[in-house]
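Re: weekly structure request thread

Next one in the queue (301 aa):
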Amino acid sequence: MDINILRYLFIAFALHMLLCGLLSEYIYSYLPIVIRDVHYSKYAIAKKRNTIIENLNVPKKWYRHFYIFSGPASTITLCLISYKFLFNGTISESVFALLDMFLGTSRKPLIPAENVILAIVILNIQCWKRVYETCYVNIFSDQKMNLSVYFVGFIHYAGIFLCIIGESKGFIRDSHTSLQLHKLTIIALICMLICLYSLYIQFKSNFILAKLRKNQHGDVTYEYKIPFGGLFKYISNPLQFTEIIMYIMLSVILWQASTFHYITVWVITNQLECAVLSHGWYHETFKNYPKERKILIPYIW
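Done, posted below.
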């Protein structure tokens, strides 16, 4: 069947997250535990959980598996597109078949080679940065996340690379392209710089959070503390803010794409919900939490 599976999948993810976010905001206590348990953040640890659902949870530190997978996947993708765009290599029929399966046989060559290269380079930096952060910087507590969330993480990163190359010129049968970096627009280059600066802010914010998990003797502690410094001075969720900015910038770079923008919408809904829940948790947990600190957008919201 000629169906863009990835498009409908990420639409479903976004709608599910939006619906759960609205329900949890107004009728959280009335929701079935199977739905409440998806809220795997620290906001959910005080809620009573069903034993069966609890057995379907995995350690939150398994987050690093997403990036141990996506780091090499991003580099393999970069090598594949470089082989095609720089050396006019022949793409295997199995690659075409895989892309046809997830994006449909009527997919179009929409994204120029130079924009694809730029986006995949940014994603390589992001994924390998997260490999380093989750393996050597982040200090995870003993919290757990739902198994469904764990699998969605892999689908997310696999979907990113598939939808980008699946709509790239040169990766559709009988389509041809050449790499012309001079065609990159000023807007695309500005978006790249904003992405890189967002990644730097993320990196800095993760170090701030990691330092909170160590006492004055350098021993690891799971005690929660209020973060200060960097963007934490203005908002509760610098990680979510910069993640949203990065994906919006990638959508601008890949503006000709048809499917990638649904991933951006999914990321925005997911990060918005995480931000709202986290901000509420901070205020419930710490009575001295800075009142002037916003949820996600400095000085605004």
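The chain has a mean pLDDT of 88. DSSP finds ten helices and two strands in the chain.
Next request, please.
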